Amino acid sequence: MKFHDRGFVLPLIVVTVLILIWDLIVWFVGGTIFPRPMAVLTGMVELIRRGVLLKYVVASLFRVSAGFLLALMVGIPLGLLRGWFTRALQAFNPLIQMLRPISPIAWIPVAILWFGVSDLAPIFLIFLASLFPIMTASIAAVQNIQLVHLRAAQNFGISGPTLFKQVISPAALPQLLSGARLALGIAWLVVVAAEMIAVNSGLGYLIIDARNAGMRYDLVVAGMVLIGFIGLMLDLTIRRLERIDQVRWGFNR
Amino acid sequence: MNQPPKIKVENLWVTFANHRRPTGSPAAAEPTTGAVLQDINLEIRNGEFVCIIGPSGCGKSTLLNIVGGFLKATSGQVLIDGQTVNGPDPRGIFIFQENGVFPWLTVEENIGFGLSHTSRENQKRAVAYYINMMGLKGFENSYPQEISGGMKQRVEIARALAADPDILYMDEPFGALDYLTRLRMRAELMQIWQRERKTVLFVTHDIEESVQLADRIVVLSPRPAIIRTIIENKLPRPRDLDAPEYLSIRDEIFEIMGLDYSGLSVDEASPDQPAFAAAPALFARPPKTKKRDADVIIIGGGPAGSALGTHLSCAGVDHLIVDRAHHPRAHVGESLSYSTISLLKEIDFLPVMEREGFLVKGGVTWTAWDDQQQINMKFRGLGEIDHAYQVDRAKFDDLLLNHARAHGTRIFSGGFVDRVDFDRHGFASGVTAKVGESKFSLRARIVVDASGRESLLGHQLKLYKPEVRQLCVHSWFSHVDLKGGDNANFTRIHLLPIPRGWVWQIPINEKTTSVGVVTGRISFVKSGEDVDQFFRWAINMNPILAASMKNAERLREFRMDDNYNYTMERFVGDGWLMIGDAAFFVDPIFCSGISDALHSAKFASQAIVNALKNDNMSESAFLDYEQKMRYGAQNWQQLIKLFYDVSPSYARSVISMKNLPDFIRLGEGDVYSESASHIVNELQKAFDDNNFRLELGALLEQSLIESGMNS
């Protein structure tokens, strides 16, 4: 990624200053457990040398991708249908509204029971976590389609599956994308939590393992920084999608 | 003409179940029917360009949506090529005001949208053709959000034309565009239509637009909409916006619509600018052509305002009535005094009275509480016509207002006048009115306050001066037994043995009688009763009255008014006059309300015509009017005071034969002169001297029947 704009200078200064303050405080307090920034950096280098860093990142990304894509595949069609056939599918509303506020973390024991200590448990949790934002966005996207566009299509004699393909889907797309972005953010939050408990690889596992096996807080913080960085990259990637011609109209308002 | 109509609308009715009450109308008492369209019948020929025009919210878009198949009518049907419309159909394509171009498709893809069923080749050719025609070359691959509003509307038109429909439905398609773009789009649409000859049904609320575009213009009334008229527009194309024929059609529609803009959406207008300039859709011309909205603005469309409107129309004065409409009027003044006849004749209203079958009032009957005698005063012999009328005021007022409209008065219904505006020289310069939540100002050279007993200007300038305070409780009744064949339709005045107390009975129609108790306020307070009991208490004081009310049933709520008898300190000022009840209001014992309204309207119209002719709008121009009105107000007050002073048995009090004709003249409403004032004074003296103790009743009856009043 290139820094097109000059807007990066100020944020860079802020980060630098904060790192300096962090360094100063730890140096001043003089504890040995919480690492100084330099220790974090060397920790990261150590992880790369040992060859686990890439492995863990890939493992986490794989789980997020699998769960997230699954949620897209299930959530979008369900949401669009639910949004279009408002009356008919009203019955599902209480169920959705009740399941939605249950934190994905609460599902962890159930996931382990069903899927054991394997990739399937975190994938299931990520699927659950991202399903609801995607569905909610899809329902809203359909319901927010402008009447004038539906009428215009109807006027040209378009109905049924063609209407879905030519009007409803493209009209809903921008809002779907917003929902997906939100869901991906949540998915990335959840994967770390899931990996701390349900598996023995990934960035979440890295953090919990570094702490349990010798209070290696330099590695803990290195893992945290990495999680933050990858989360940022994921968000920027999906934001780039918003500039595609077919959806850009939905973001210029 | 022999070819069958392309579109045929038959007996179309639309009612919405949960119909919204029009905003700005506090008339909670008014029942809201849900009707939007009432019995619309319309035929449109193949290739015709028809505009549907009407005030905002009148239902013209609803009509278009029904013809286009997007909405269902409550009853009636639409036929296209003889087939009933059951839903939208590609043979008739809609063009929407809010722009129905798909933002996720390029210009090219949008235009080809309706062609997906045809071959690639054909699609490409059609798209290229319409891109060229609509001047969209170079923008084929642009997305709608990258082009201007006017261009987007071109894309939508191109998309419609590419599908090759028979009919185009256009729902205020240029409404969202700026003025210049709108003008250009109209011209382009005209060129396209001349080339393609589609049938076009075009909805707009812009009069200019309709005149520029249409072969025929269908003018709808406010909701519930009926077709007010259909105007043929045979002007040659391209049309010259400044040609006199063009302007005359425009003005014709304008008059028909009568400024009937209940739902007029006007933004805050700056005070220096005519309001119509702030409503660009209505007056889509630059504001420079109009410095004011009318020479004369009349506040209120009651009898005074309507009569003045008619007078001014006849005199060719440019004027405008701002009427709140939809508002129940105060229904006092149901019995017209004899002098109204000649005034109504002057404004050519008597034929309407006859046609509408108002009850003929032959005279007045007086009764007292302490004997069984009824004194009948007949109008026989007073002039060519020997009767007046009893009227249902709601109906009468409506007819009178429509009469003014028919004579050319512009009427701005649904506008609440907030205040009269004054310029920096202290001259009235117009009014600030409200439609719904939006305020705007109307400019004029003269403002006439005909706002009735609300006395808008009187309160604004603090000129209000209450006289003897009287209170009145009245309602409508059925089964009132008014005995006496010939005299059945007389107005009954029943005297009561309480200070300044009497009761009217006015037959409104065969079944309905208006009954009202008038007393000093103190009587009501003393009685300590609720309105119902007070009313019964009063009725039972007079045996004849009580007998007639034995089986009476009340038809509606009691109304109570307690602001009877007031006069404004001034009736005129720089640039303004007050007429009718806005100027003064006297106790209704002489049935003088309508008479005063009509008299003052007549006098005011003379004053206004002169003022405009001499280009002098200052108070001095209206002093003559003020003087006449002052005599009227004083004479009435004195007569009424006399009546009450000499009461409780006025009818049996003293009066000389010599004065009788004069008295009748006064009592019948001719009070607006110095000579009338002398007569009142003489009467006063006669009463004071108490020289004559003769039975008035017998005298009156005898003299009226036998001697006649022609002398």
Overall description:
The complex is a heterodimer of chains A (253) and B (711). In chain A, 77% of the residues lie in helices and 0% in strands. Chain A has 11 helices and no strands. In chain A, helix 8 (160-198) packs antiparallel against helix 10 and helix 9 (203-212) packs antiparallel against helix 10. Chain A is mostly helical and 253 residues long. Chain A has a single domain (40-248), classed as MetI-like (MetI-like fold, Orthogonal Bundle). In chain B, strand 28 (572-573) and strand 29 form a beta hairpin. The longest helix of chain B is centred in the C-terminal third of the chain and has 24 residues, at 623-646. Chain B is elongated and about 105 Å long. Chain B has 4 domains: 7-91 and 165-257, Rossmann fold (3-Layer(aba) Sandwich); 260-334 and 391-463 and 569-617, FAD/NAD(P)-binding domain (3-Layer(bba) Sandwich); 360-390 and 467-564, D-Amino Acid Oxidase, Chain A, domain 2 (2-Layer Sandwich); 619-711, no CATH class. In chain B, helix 6 (207-213) packs across helix 7, helix 9 packs parallel to helix 17 and helix 18 (623-646) runs parallel beside helix 20 (674-689). In chain B, strands 14, 15, 22, 23, 24, 25, 26, 27 and 30 form a 9-stranded mixed sheet that branches. In chain B, strands 6-7-8-3-9-10 form a 6-stranded mixed sheet, sandwiched between helices. Chain B has 21 helices and 30 strands. The A-B interface holds A 146, 148-149, 151-152, 154-157, 166-167, 170-171, 173, 245-250, 252 and B 68, 70, 87-90, 92-94, 96, 98-100, 102-105, 113-114, 116, 143-145, 163.
